[in-house]
Task: structure prediction
Amino acid sequence: MVIILICSLLIACHSEHSIKLGSYKSVKYSQIELGLLLVFKGIRGAYIGSEINLRIDSSFQYSTCGNILNGTWFIKNDSLILKVNSNRYRIDSLNIKGFNGFFPSVPKKPIKFKIENNYLISIHISEKGKKTIEKLKFSMP
Result:
């Protein structure tokens, strides 16, 4: 009976994906890698310059080339889910006047990244169906 209980606990511990806390930075693909992504997965481009900082209190800061998003994170199955509470431009002057009168909005849906070892991966699909990939690698605690 005790052996069954211990085995059950070990299986339960391994079934939940874990994630390292700290900084994840975008991976730059080579032209060959981008070509292979296009041929085998239909991915037409890759995001670069992004960074996600995951904190122990379940808060995060997600910086892209143009925006800084903040909110809370959690893990569901094999994915990191980012629930965004605020979204602002990286350039302070744009936060005052906007970009051509427009300000960034908070995404209605959470942002999802698949967890694969020390990587976070997300496939983005535009309104026109164009696929792009964002891959971030754990860089430091």
